[in-house]
Amino acid sequence: MRFHHVCGEAVTISDDSRTAKRSEHCFSHGIVFCNKPIQINERICVELSCVSMWSGALRLGVTTCDPAELNASDIPKYAFPDLSKKEGYWVAHLNENETCTGTKITAYINSSSQFHIFRNNKHCGVYISQLPTNQNLWLFYDLYGNTNGIRLVPADGAPKEIQARGTDAVRAYHSSCSTGTQPVYRSRLMLVGKDRVGKTSLKRALTGLSHNKEEKSTNGIDLSASCSFNLNNRSSWKLAIKGEDFPLSPDADKKELGILGGYDGLEEEYHQALANNIVKELLFVPKPTQSINKPIRSSVSSSTGSFNRVNKLDGRLPPLLESLPKITDIKQIPPDLINDVPERVVQLVQKQLENPTADKSLSSSHNSVSKNNTVVLNIWDFAGQAVYYTTHQVFLTSRAVYVIVFNLCDDLTGKQKEKQEKVEESEELSTLEYMDFWMRSIHAHAAENTFNSVDNTRLSPPIFIVGTHRNSLDTDLDTQRLLVEEKFNTVRQYITGKPYTQHIVTPFFAVENDLCSYDQDQQIDLLRSEIEKIAGRESYMGEQMPIKWLKFEQEITRLADEGTHYATFDQVREIAANNGIISDEEIQTLLEFYHDLGVIIYYGSSSMVENVLRNTVILNPQWLIDMFRRFIVSKSSRDQWNLMEDKWKRLELYCIIEEPLIDVLWHDAIPQKYMLLGLMEKFDLLCKRIPPSGQSHREEYGSFYIPMRLRNNKDDNHDSLYPHQASNVVIYLDFNSFLPEGLFYRILTRATRWSQDNGGRDPYLFRRSARFYIDSEHDFILEMPLKQHYIKVVIVREVDLSNDLMTSPPPLPSACAKVRNFLESTLCDLRALWMKRIAYKTCVACPCDKKCILHKLSKCSEQGCLHFLDMDECLSNKIVCCDHRRVQTDQFQKWFPSATNSEFKDPILSVKCLDNIGTNIERNAPDLPKWLKGAAKLLNGGSENQDWMALAKQMGYKTNKIEKFNDDLNPALALLTDWIITSGNTGLSVDMLILYLEQLQRYDIMEVINNAKDAEKDNPEIFLSYQWDHQDEVRKLRDRLERSGFKCWMDIGQMGGGDLLNAKIDEGIRNSKVVVACITPKYIVSHLCNRELGLADVLQKPIIPILFDSVIWPPPGGLAVILSQLVYINLKGVGGHGGTGIHADMEDKYKEIIQHVTIHSVPVVQTSYSESIISDTEVLEKQVQGMSPEHTSSLSSFTDHDILHSAFSELGLPHQHQLLSSTETVARTSNNPQNQGVHVTKCAVCVLL
After folding, report:
1. What sign for the dihedral angle of Cα 1040, 1043, 1048, 1054?
2. Residue 1147 neighbours by CB under 8 Å, 6+ apart
């Protein structure tokens, strides 16, 4: 949006048309228009520039008159009363008490034809109603009085969590804001650190409580504390504790608890907002009744700015207004206005009426936390025991201030053994490694892409580093100060250059929390003050929340405080309805927003399929944490009367839990057992176990795998999992120096689930490795080496013990591609759900002989000495470079399916263009392909044993023929042309040429030829979008389509995965004419499949949905927008009751699919071989007839026919003799129209014979 050039005579418009400035010598003639009509729900925001020499302030409104049709003389001096009296103009204005330099005024028109105004992102109310939104409406401003300038700025939108949910969520949020909003100042204070370093004591010190030497260690996450602070009173934080007997603040100070300060704080927040609304309505003079045929607009009665307002809108809550233009002498509350109003609200209203200027919040700015705004911090104390690491990441958020706590007395680089656990000493993290782990976790899980909004120097969320037990370092203060500085220098040097450094708040703090409350540490005061300052600067502080959302949150908090841990969706819907939240869209947005904030846990979004999760809302996250903790740390009581000892033993040894044991662990939540199991599956903390199909006994109870309990087991011996053979395929997932154990165990959970879906049973699970089933011939192993930041993936092929082979054959490329696709799609999902900043790449170990730095050995096999090559580069290039030397990649390319073979169209060369070429083939045959000339140029310039002459000898040409080539001005071009013509003039001739070039190591020429092949290939017109679990069924569909003449793109035939596959997918969709979506339940929830279909929709490609499995239609989630209007073809249930048989039914469905595809793409009917420009028979005839010697050769130019035969064998190409002659082929093709698409190819050896 820009300002229109037509404006008042005192206004100057900037060059970019974004700023309008009024002359300082007058207070009028300041009307300015926007240059285009305002759209429904489009928010236009201006920042004011003000002076203090005049009276009055900004006026704004809308008009149906196009400013382009106005002249400067048509623009009056004032918007009011001059424009307000004209038909098609509506004017509102602001009080000068509301405006100052920097104030932001936002205006928009909603779908109900109402004109809303926000000041500093706070909703002021509906200023104009019943606008003619069926016409174009232009926004205009009157720079009147003290407002002498405005600048168009981006409008402050909805909270980022709502914006991330899409336009529907933003629309629902704005709709809720129209009934009144309240600024919210809240955050979390997350204390993380090792066990027994003093996190809980630090929490007590920050909140002014005495140190408790008998403090127990935290289990799981303790979020029972909530505190508040005010910037004009920094002496202490007020604490509200749930579940403990701490002193609470008096009732008179309840209002300072704010949101997330417990039920009392929420209730007080809502009462305060409601009282503000009532007072503001009482302070305005009622508006006279107007004709309903005219839009309702405000009218100004004097130049001072007092105006009349609509009193109530449609029976809703009165709008939240900020200006107080005319205060009437109201000292008592009208009885009809306080019916059904809580007593606390009546008290607050009476207080404000008696002293209208007492509540400064009515006119405060909301750009930053002012001195009268209370900030509420929920304090989360994370357990330090290593056993909890796998669940903490679930609760990390960007709306928090993090404090990394460590003990200054600990050795920062040494390893302190956890007291609560019996684990291997070698695996313990040092203090620095532990701090690095947590800061990388915060960066990966919670980091925002933007800097904080104030100084633009740090990433959000901020991280404080605090050392405790300062006084225990030394009794001498000077020595103590030096030791602290030494510790901090060590930490500073360690974190320099790490990806999370921009989150760190400096300087670090050294505190002593073993003090009484009356002997407070000065560093505690400084830390508290810095937390207040940093938290107040976060961009989410002061966000406007709909008042009815706050009331809903109050009810939810009350239920959680009363012990209601969960509720059904219908119950939550009823609570929302009681607070004026009616529409499904608004309820969904509300629940998703509070889920993102961590107030509730709700996974019932439309992308979920599980009905149990969709119908359940967790009101108390602490309860859910406790349920998870029981699965992680519970152990057998070893009681002699424990009749479930066998089940406990199975859980502790094999991480398999049976349902009777689940009932014991969740004895107080049995009705919600399946909901909790569903949530644990959602978090990838467990997966259902499918018993082996050949098991002789039937298991009475269901059971589940819990891979996260593997960390309690001893280390395993990787050598026992698989034989170490050269035929194994070994790839690596390199995580760039950060691989949390929790991520590895989640991958194991998904791998177990995937393996069982493929038919595998009972995977071998160990602490740092596991073996899984792929198919009847293949398994794969996942290893996480100790202290390394990568996962080793080994794909093995089973050996038939009945044969005499000593080693297994190499795995099939399709199996390798299947594993890689699974792993990369899994990591893509986990990154989208939990760890948005986790970085990884697929690699292979470099086979070069570079000496390792640690052991000074060539090809050192130690895990920490490996260096890697990027897999995508290896699959797309013949040669790659490592730090040591160039490496050939053919050994890696054999592991995966090669890209679809590109071939030149037969014939390669036209024989007619080679007549009378003499001794200058390049001049006399100008139509030769460019790639052939380029290859010849490189050959002519080759070194000895790599030039054209070496190639001719390699091909078997005799000396006299080579001398004849040498007589040509371009001997290499003459050689290549002769080779192609005499060897059949087909793509096979070029493949043979590439084979000889590879033997000469002329990879540069091979690349030229292969690039020319890719340029000539036909792009498939059918793109098959599918999820890999149904690959076999989709492959059958592809084969059927290709037999019908439709060339299909399917990624199993292209590449193994990675960025190269993504580029190929993008190219395939863009080049296709139609996209066939193979819909299954896993397809719907797959991020990769959603991206494919989303790109197809953006590119407006026709989409044909085919159901391979039963799903709800339209499918839930984002795909519903794309697929809801499309008619699907159902392949599920073919051959069932009433059909003609599975094969006949399937053929009918295939024909239906082909019919739909034919609408968008024409099948390619391949011509028979005899219709080529030049056939093999013609080549032989020309050789027999003795054509010009310049381009004629015979079999005598080859040393032996076996040269060709052996070459074909090395290429891996079939050598089959066709028995049909060309004339027979033509006759059969012409007599039988059904065979017109048959392509009969002759072997080139047979042609030469």
Report:
1. positive
2. none
